[in-house]
Amino acid sequence: MHSPGTTPPTAPVPHQRRPRPGAAARAALVLGVLGGVLLVLVAVSWSPLMSFDRSVARALHRRAVEEPGLVHVNRVLTDWVWDPWTMRALIAVVVLWLWSRREWLLGSWIAGTVALGTLVQQAMKAAVGRKRPSWPDPVDSAHYAAFPSGHAMTAVIALGLLLWLLRRRKTTGPVWGWSVAVAAVSVAGVGYTRLYLGVHWPTDVLGGWLFGACWVALSLALYPWAERTWSRRTGNGGGAPKDPRAGGQSKETGQAEDPP
Questions:
Q1: Who has greater pLDDT, 186 or 11?
Q2: Distance linking the first and last C-alpha atoms of the chain
Q3: What is the 3-state secondary structure (H, E, C) of the chain?
Q4: What's the distance, CA 201 to chain centroid?
Q5: What is the pLDDT of residue 247?
């Protein structure tokens, strides 16, 4: 019992933690810092890094000159299988499929991520203005600035987004395993073809991988915000078909779905 005129003690207010950034945001930050450091070192032509680039490029070029059959294989892979336009065409097919399912936001987000990634890539190339390797006996040719590698960056962005899409659909088992394996081989393979054909320095490829992964992570980190904004404006998260078992709730924003 409390005496008259006194108030009972109040329970202490629990300490509220500030929301922490998600894994995608943290990955984007780390990858962005690493890519930024590499960009600066390339821009100032840091001697140890330039020496490493030249030694690797020369060794691979000597092999390529002696192996015309493998040069042909690498040219087919880099110009057709892993070409940036092949990656963009693959994304276009997926986007059209999503739109056919009325998943307007998700399809548009993936398309926008790829398109803006291409613009960022071209802007970095223009800003750095790095020259490509030059050989007296070239086995292939490429134009425009070298850093970062457009082939490497586009492959990481396109395939990274496709893997994210598969995870959103709870893909598991052999399909997921094979998808990851194909993506990993493609990302590594396209980088190797650019080096083997003598049209990029190793740090160009590394820069493409880092900035591509950073761009995907940033897209994944921002997508929940875009989803909430879309839901407030339209009342339908992403325009996905309604799930009758969820009382009309959109599959795109169902609470049971794991965040990206």
A1: 186
A2: 52
A3: CCCCCCCCCCCCCCCCCCCCCCHHHHHHHHHHHHHHHHHHHHHCCCHHHHHHHHHHHHHHHHHHHHCHHHHHHHHHHHHHHCCHHHHHHHHHHHHHHHHHCCCHHHHHHHHHHHHHHHHHHHHHHHHHCCCCCCCCCCCCCCCCCCCCCHHHHHHHHHHHHHHHHHHHCCCCHHHHHHHHHHHHHHHHHHHHHHHHCCCCCHHHHHHHHHHHHHHHHHHHHHHHHHHHHHHHHHCCHHHCCECHHHCCCEHHHCCCCCCC
A4: 21
A5: 40
**Could you tell me how many residues make up the chain?**
260
Give the mean model confidence (pLDDT) for residues 71-86: 97
**Among 259, 153, 150, CA closest to 213:** 153
- Between the alpha carbon of residue 46 and those of residues 41, 52, 55, 121, 149, the distances in Å are 5, 10, 15, 22, 19
Residue whose pair of structure tokens reads 């990858």 in the numeric block = 31
pLDDT tens for each residue of 193-251:
999 999 999 999 999 999 999 999 999 999 999 999 998 887 665 555 444 444 444 44
Backbone angles phi, psi at 113, to 5 degrees: -60, -45
- C-alpha to C-alpha distance for 51 and 77, rounded to whole angstroms: 28
Contacts of 194 (CB under 8 A, 6+ apart): 78, 149, 151, 152, 200, 204, 205
φ, ψ (nearest 5 deg) of residue 33? -65, -45
